[in-house]
Specification:
The chain is an alpha/beta fold. The chain is about 25% helix and about 25% strand. The protein is built from seven helices and 17 strands. The strands form four sheets. It has a seven-stranded parallel beta sheet, sandwiched between helices. It is elongated.
Length: about 325
Amino acid sequence: MADVLAVAESKRGILAGVSREVVTVARTLADRLGGSVAVAAAGASGGALGAYGADRVIDFESSRPGSGRVDAWAAVLADHIRSRRYRAVVFAATATGRDLAPRVAAKLRTALLTDVTGVEVDDGDIVATRPVFAGKALARVRAERVPALLSVRPNVFSPQESARDAVVETLAGEADGVVAGYRVKGFEASEGVAIDVSEAAIIVSGGRGMKGPENWGLLEDLRDALGETAALGASRAVVDAGWRPHAEQVGQTGKTVTPKLYLAIAISGAIQHLAGMRTSGVIVAVNRDADAPIFGVADYGVVGDAFEVVPRLAEAIRDLRDG
């Protein structure tokens, strides 16, 4: 009973990039436990995940798991986990994962270690590292129940290729006994959003110091200069003022992000905002106030006017990329 299950995610029939990270974590745990890796996929074929260490891919044929009814998918998944007796199950700590994983944990009556940023096996037990107190400290938590359920923070674990000839198994998952009390009628994609802020490798985030929505073109230009892996973010004050959509909000009441590069432009750095981005790989801050709290977590800081610094920064990045 050392096998590990990775729960893949998909959007509109395409595997989400975070699925590669989830399989990478599952592969790491399985290697240390002496087991194999299975992938549970619904809504998209998971066969390509064999390249990242999956020994077996289980495609759930039923339309219910991929239909948006997360309670039905949780029931199907919990039944499958009971039948296979996995040692651990790995989810992504995305909006979907945060909805799904607790439901599965409740059905299995086991604990869920959330927002994990590190994993190890100590004396046969799975030990997870996760931020606590708004990211000011890290806790090491030992999973004492089987299966151990983990949700891993996106963009923390780099996908590692570990090619396997994955065996694809098809199951007709059903959850007819689940009464949700609601019906999903459809989905609407956010207009003009190329990449979700929680999945972006680079985030250009603006604060109230941008003075108004009419100035966001400066940040969009910087985002475009950084390439297709960059997304726009915003502070709570900006979203509350109606300058930017809530989907871009970073912080305790928005989205927790862990990009490789986070640019905080004209953001003072309230504790609620820091809670959502302080675990980013590299933080660059631009602010006129040298005493702004954001500089306390920044790896690099520029004390200056964003309206002067940002255009120069975008130009320098374009020159570097073109050269």
